[in-house]
Write a structure and sequence with these properties.
The structure holds 2 protein chains of 2 kinds. Chain A is mostly helical. Chain A is built from 10 helices and 2 strands, in the order αββααααααααα. Classes of the chains: A mainly alpha, B mainly alpha.
Chain lengths: 304, 282
């Protein structure tokens, strides 16, 4: 007994406790990397974009014209790019939201269990298709379709981009909306059914309103994803930096501008800094959408 | 009357759902049908010629493989470590909610912004240049939240009793985690990691600015070399190549290989998840 006491405690126990403390620190360090990365993202975006704020000044960004390379006067107005992103995103959401919510209702409330087991993973395949592959499909299949349907000279339009983006947003919004629908307490649904409401009345007047905050948050997260999407819109929207509200004209989004031009600008030039400012605008928009969506989820107790 | 209307609405919901299924099916069908005819051993094993208009895509496959391995090497330890901290150690305080906020923020950052960030910090500030190292680090930052969230979920699925029993027997906290929590959550964590990696393999925007080479028909010698990568190769062939119209088969072939890689990874993850659910049941 004595022997055990002497060998066990003095030798191994301190070592164990030191390991324990060390691991805690190490794991905490790993968890903190996320904070570090977020800080570094903001820091480096501002570092690279910085000098533009003093010369030529941030006011230059408020222009509507984006003409980064010119013999007379370069112009770095993000107006047309913002409107391009807004147009494509709005169109995409117009298509995506009704479809996704209806499909989520079907999967969550109507489909039989076996059917659900097939539908969920199959639609999730859509989310794992790389955006460049979807863009390629859009270029060869969707664009000609849009061109033929509307009798246009080119199929590379805001609408084409929006259709592809909605393909990307649909699985995200379906899956999050379905979570929201499923998390509505059974008591509510049962109460409605017990009062004599039909299945559909229960779905549209009880379950759907109860799940609405979760669906709103899902849509906001979807918008964040759509605004930030790069490759598909770069490939199919035609890349014309013009201020327009027509779904059938070519547009250029903020993301596509960065992707298309960053490869060709001299590092540190005014054009280069302007592209980083576009990145900052994107970051701020998606950051704000994310925070608000989380607030909504938290407020209505839908946080998992 | 009411009944007929109900039936009609139910039918419409079903039709919309299956229309989406049909669209997904058609996308897969189109890529597989057209890509399949381009596939042969020479296509996947030889170097491209004439700026990618002929030959194979071997260097792009190798490049994507290196990027994926580099991304796992960086993001897996950080992601799993962070998840263990959040699930096992973190109590409710300011600092820990800051960590959670950071993870949510990272998950929402657009991929092209990760590209700008990687360009600013890894390529320029650390002076790695456009390289496998810079690209892998950028992709690792991008997939970090995916891995953390999935790993934490899998850790939380381990019943509390396992932990209590182990602590009651005198184990320290780390011993408890190592012997009684990690073994049961490992497969869940690997599943999360694979899903994250699948996303990294298919991304184009972040590698556009940090690693990808336009046309580089040789293999990289070190982590400081540029590489070709499948998604970027497809993008170039489809939109930038002067002969884009005439080399559709090369494009479809590349798209199919990329799709198979990414879907194969997801399928592997799903199978692993089903398998482990059967193995550990409590």
């Amino acid at each position: 007994m004595n022997k055990l006491k002497n060998t066990f405690y003095p030798l191994t126990a301190p070592k164990l406790f030191i390991t324990d403390k060390l691991m805690r620190l190490l794991l905490m360090g790993a968890a903190s990397t996320s904070v570090l990365v977020v800080c570094l993202i903001f820091l480096f975006l501002f570092k690279e974009a910085g000098p533009f704020a003093f010369k030529p000044g941030l006011g230059k960004l408020l222009d509507s014209q984006w003409i980064p390379v010119s013999f007379q006067q370069e112009r770095f107005g993000v107006g047309s790019l913002l409107s391009g992103s807004a147009l494509v995103t709005a169109l995409a959401m117009l298509v995506t939201v009704p479809i996704s919510v209806l499909v989520a209702i079907y999967i969550a409330e109507i489909a039989r269990p076996g059917e659900r087991e097939f539908l969920k993973p199959f639609i999730e395949i859509l989310a794992s298709i790389p955006s460049v592959v979807l863009g390629f499909f859009g270029l060869l299949v969707v664009a000609p379709l849009v061109k033929a349907t509307f009798g246009l000279s080119t199929g590379l339009t805001a609408l084409t981009g929006a259709l592809l983006l909605s393909l990307m947003a649909i699985p995200t919004i379906i899956s999050l909306s379905e979570d929201a629908l499923v998390s509505v307490p059974y008591a509510l649904k049962n109460a409605s059914l017990a009062l004599g409401a039909s299945q559909l009345q229960t779905i549209f007047r009880v379950t759907l309103p109860a799940a609405l905050p979760g669906i709103v948050a899902a849509v906001m997260l979807g918008i964040g994803r759509v605004i930030g999407e790069t490759m598909a819109v770069l490939m199919v929207t035609g890349n014309a930096a013009i201020l327009t509200a027509s779904p059938l004209s070519s547009v250029r989004t903020m993301t596509a501008t960065i992707a298309a031009e960053m490869g060709e600008v001299p590092f540190g030039s005014i054009h280069y800094q302007a592209l980083f400012w576009i990145g900052i605008i994107l970051l701020v928009i998606t950051f704000a959408l994310n925070i608000v969506a989380q607030r909504v989820l938290k407020k209505y107790g839908m946080m998992k | 009357m009411n009944n007929t209307a109900d039936k009609f609405i139910l039918l419409s919901l079903r039709l919309i759902t299956y229309a989406i299924v049909l669209v997904v099916g058609y996308i897969l069908f189109d890529i597989i049908r057209n890509g399949f005819s381009a596939l042969n051993w020479q296509f996947v094993s030889s170097f491209p010629r004439r700026s990618g208009a002929a030959g194979g895509i071997f260097p792009a496959i190798v490049g994507t493989f290196y990027l994926v391995v580099g991304t796992i090497a960086v993001s897996l330890p950080l992601g799993v470590g962070g998840a263990i901290y959040l699930a096992e150690y973190a109590e409710q305080n300011r600092f820990n909610s800051l960590i959670r906020l950071a993870i949510i923020t990272l998950a929402g950052v657009p991929s092209i912004v990760f590209g700008l960030f990687g360009l600013g910090i890894f390529v320029l500030f650390f002076g790695f240049g456009p390289s496998i190292l810079a690209g892998s680090l950028t992709l690792a930052c991008m997939v970090l939240p995916t891995i953390i969230v999935a790993s934490e979920e899998s850790l939380r699925a381990v019943p509390k009793g396992f932990r209590d029993a182990s602590l009651a027997l005198g184990a320290t906290k780390w011993e408890m985690i190592r012997t009684n929590v990690l073994p049961y959550s490992l497969s869940g964590m690997i599943t999360g990691a694979i899903l994250g990696i699948g996303r990294a393999a298919g991304e184009t925007a972040p590698i556009l600015l940090t690693v990808a080479a336009f046309y580089l028909p040789r293999l990289p010698k070190s982590v400081f070399d540029q590489v070709m990568a499948l998604p970027y190769h497809l993008y170039i062939l489809a939109t930038q190549h002067p002969e884009a119209e005439r080399i559709r088969h090369m494009q479809y072939g590349t798209a199919l290989i990329l799709l198979l890689l990414v879907l194969g990874l997801s399928l592997g993850a799903i199978l692993l998840r089903t398998h482990s659910r059967k193995k550990f049941r409590w």
